[in-house]
Amino acid sequence: MREPLLQEAPLLEGRGVSKRYRTPATKLFAREGGIWGLGNEAGETVDFAVRRGESVAIVGESGSGKSTLLGMLLGLGTPTTGEVRFDGSLVFPRQRRDRMLWLRRRTGIVFQDPYSSFNPRRTIGQTVAEPLFATNAPGNHREMVTAILDRMELPKGSADRYPHEFSGGQRQRIALARALVHGPELLVADEPVSALDVLVRSRLLDLLGELRDEMGLTLITVTHDLSVVPRLAERVAVMRDGVIVEQGSVEAIFERPQETYTRELIAALPRLR
To answer: N or C: which end of the chain has fewer CB within 10 A?
Structure first.
């Protein structure tokens, strides 16, 4: 795997970030102060950074806080505490609308279940073009959509078809096309291959690597499946109960894990016998 193209300042950074949910239900069924989605009652918060050109995997069991952390870093939610910066500029504390549009132009997101984020009444071309209109991207939008769908190895004429006409693997490629059509610098993939067959997921992992090289992407991957990490990342952050318990290079984490939790995750990987 290639070496990351690092620079001194992180492209995306969160310092002292936490998220505490307070709802009527928490008062009735849980703690008076709310439930921690990120950070914990002991005062621990999350520090996380990714440098330009780097690929980082955030791993942990379901409910460990991975997706919550991403939401806070990308301005999709409001942290309870902390500071988030993208390329040196503040994302939180919340900035004005034009600054958030600036962030959207420079980031792309692939969600775990792309089908639920597709409008079944809109064609694939209309769906993939959404970020172009949302970010006021320059250029011929029709040509840009056609080009990215071709690069995703989708059938000719896909732009005029509807989501239900595609397989799960093809829908994930469509989601990837939508995330990349406007040329972002940072791609965030939330469980990108979790629901795919072995051969389909293998090709999608290869495609992610190819696109990263071609487009010079910085990549953050969220996954509970450690088996895909060596194919996607140079660095790993391990999350448990809303905090990062260990992070380091892929080699260090897999060969010399320091935390019992990390060792348990690695031991749970399926192995041929």
So the answer is: C
